[in-house]
Amino acid sequence: MIKPFAALCLAASLHAGELLTYDSSGALRSASPAAAREAGFLLVSRADLLGAASAAVLDSRGAIHPVLWVSGDDPDAGVAEVFVGYQAAAGPPRAPEIGKTVRCGAAAGAVRYVKESGVFGWIARLEFPPDSQPAPGALLDEHGRLLGWHTVKTVDGQTMHFGIPVARFDAMHASLRLGLADWNARQDLRGEAELQRALGHLWAEDFDGARFYLNQAVQARPSHARAWLHLGFVEGKTGHTRRGIECYEAAIRHDPGLAPAWYHLGFALVMAGEADRARGLCEKLEKLDAALASRLRTFIELSHVDMVEKEAGRGGGLRHKH
C-alpha cells in the first residue's frame, strides 16, 4: 500500500497536478497525473477513478482539492474530467495543434504522425527514447502548452505511445454533474478491457487484431454500443460492408443516442449503394449532432459523382445519369 505522506510528496515533486484516489477506509489507492484544462476542471485517468470511494487533486502549490463531481466522461479515450472548484489553478495554456515534438512529464518525444483513426477520431502516434517510457498523463508541447492526453497501449507485446488531442475533450466538458459514487454506480465494466486492447490495435492499423478484441468485447457485453460502433468500422475497413452495417445497427439498437453510429451507418449504406436509405437517416442524426448530419448529407451528394459520365460527342462535357 502507498503511504499517504510519501505519495503526496512524490506527487508534488513530479507533477503539476495529481489525482489521488482513496478506498472506503480512507487509504490511498492510487496517485496519477491530472491535467488542468481550465480553472477547476481537470483531465484524469478514468481507470483510476473506477472503484474509488473518494478522490482529490493535489495541485502544484501543494493544495489538496476534493473532487466534487465527475464533469465529463470519455470511455474510449480512457479519460474523465473532474471538477474540484474554481479556486484550483487554471493550468497551462492550450496549444493550437500537435506539432513535431511533445513532452510528457520529464520525457521528450517525437510525433510520428497525426491522423484520423476510424470512428475514434484524431490520434497522434508518438515515439519516446527506449530509456524514457513515460506513463499516461498530460501531453505538452515544447513551450509547456497543453496538447492533450498521452496514453500507452500494448500491441502484440510492443509498447506504443499515442496522443489524444485536447480538442476531443471539448465535447465532454461539463456534460455531467455526478458524484463519484453515482458515477461509479453507472459503470458496466464488461468488455471494457477488451475494448481498450482493441483500440490499441485500431490505432496501430492492425485491423485483424482490433476485430478479434472487439468481438470479445461484444461477447462479454452484447449491449456494448461503443464496441459495436468500432467493430462496424473495422468490418467495413476490411471489406465486410454488410457486416459493418449490421454492427452499426446493433450500436444504435443499444444506444439510440450514439450519433457517430448513425453517421457511419449512413456512410456504409452509401458505400453499399443504398443512398436513399442513408438520406433517410439525416433527419434523425440532425437531432443528435447537426455537424455530423451536415457531413453525411455532403457525402451523399458527393457520392453522385459516381453517377456522372462524359456525354458522348460533346468534347468532355458531363451529364448526370438518372
Overview features:
single chain; alpha+beta; 10 helices; 15 strands; 322 residues; globular; disordered N terminus; seven-stranded antiparallel sheet
Structural class, judged by helices and strands? Answer: alpha+beta
Radius of gyration: 22 Å
| Helix share bin | 25-40%
The biggest sheet amounts to:
7 strands, antiparallel
The count of helical stretches stands at 10
Strand order, sheet with most strands: 5-4-1-2-3-7-6
Output the helix-strand order.
HEEEHEEEEEEEEEEHHHHHHHHEE
Terminus-to-terminus distance = 72 Å
Describe this structure in words.
By secondary structure, the protein is of the alpha+beta class. Mean pLDDT is 89; it is low at 1-15 and 307-322. A seven-stranded antiparallel β-sheet has the order 5-4-1-2-3-7-6. The chain has ten helices and 15 strands. The chain is globular and about 60 Å long.
Brief synopsis:
With 322 residues, this protein is α+β, with helices and mostly antiparallel strands.
Layout of strands and helices, then pairs:
Layout: H1 4-14, E1 17-22, E2 28-38, E3 41-45, H2 46-49, E4 54-59, E5 64-66, E6 69-74, E7 79-83, E8 101-104, E9 107-116, E10 122-127, E11 137-140, E12 146-155, E13 158-165, H3 180-185, H4 192-203, H5 207-220, H6 225-237, H7 241-254, H8 259-271, H9 275-288, H10 290-302, E14 308-310, E15 318-320
Antiparallel strand pairs: 1-2, 1-4, 2-3, 3-7, 4-5, 6-7, 8-9, 9-10, 10-13, 11-12, 12-13, 14-15
Helix pairs in contact: 4-5, 5-6, 6-7, 6-8, 7-8, 8-9, 8-10, 9-10
